[in-house]
Specification:
The protein is of the alpha/beta class. The chain has helices at 2-37, 65-78, 95-107, 118-130, 148-151, 158-166, 173-178, 181-188, 191-201, 215-235, 251-262, and strands spanning 39-46, 85-88, 134-137, 244-250, 267-270. It contains 11 helices and 5 strands. Mean pLDDT is 81; it is low at 1-34.
Length: 277
Amino acid sequence: MKNVLTILLVTILFSCSNNEKIKEGIGQVETQSIDENKIKVLNMATFHMGFTNDANSVEYDERNLKNKKEIHSIAKLLSAFKPTVIILESSPEYNEKLQKEYKEYKNNPKMEFKNPSEGELLGYELGRISNVNRIYGIDHKMGYNYRLIDSLAKSKNEKIYLDFMDYYGPISETKYENGNTLEKLKMENKPEYLDYLIAYNADIMTHISTKNKFEGADVAAKYYQRNLRMYSNLNKISLTQNDRVFILMGSSHIAFFRDFMRRSPKYNMVDVFEYLK
């Protein structure tokens, strides 16, 4: 009787173990299937190469022939991704104008722009050599007060904020200024720098407030809101599993998109350093 019970117990345990393995196997197959069906995205951060209203800007001569040559070389590297759609930091309301101008550039790559930005310099050129037909802007402007600290009463946490703001983050200012265009873009896309930008643009503001109020947190919330609305604009664009999406935007926006897409059931981010070599 004892032997029978032992055999029965072993059989039950073996059966349960197999069932768990089967469930695991099914889960793995489903996950792999979902991953294979995700839309490939190359999510690339850039500094603003032309005029910008942003609080932070980089000294860069967008009309310098050497710089333009470097940018076109980078476009050639990125073309290995084989994009089918290009996304830029431009408002959707200008999409018709954007697409018209891009088409003109494809027909005449020597055309001059009044105020060229990274969109025209890099985005258009990548699209042209990759024969991309679809290009969209997804930006969403919102007002928020980065000078909030100047108008607030002294806060016991103000020193934490100021110390952080004085810290330049994982990028060496001298190395950045002396770097060529490719080296600058590599630094802009460092994961630790992108994490720093989320804290710099939003999270650190939570240290600024007056009694019983949340001024800093509210400013941070607006920056999150802006990026979520930009992400919503992306999600309004009709895409299929066959599309390969190249996104080119300012580094802080890419930092947020990197977080959003990391958890997304729809998108599969490709490592930008596979192409920035």
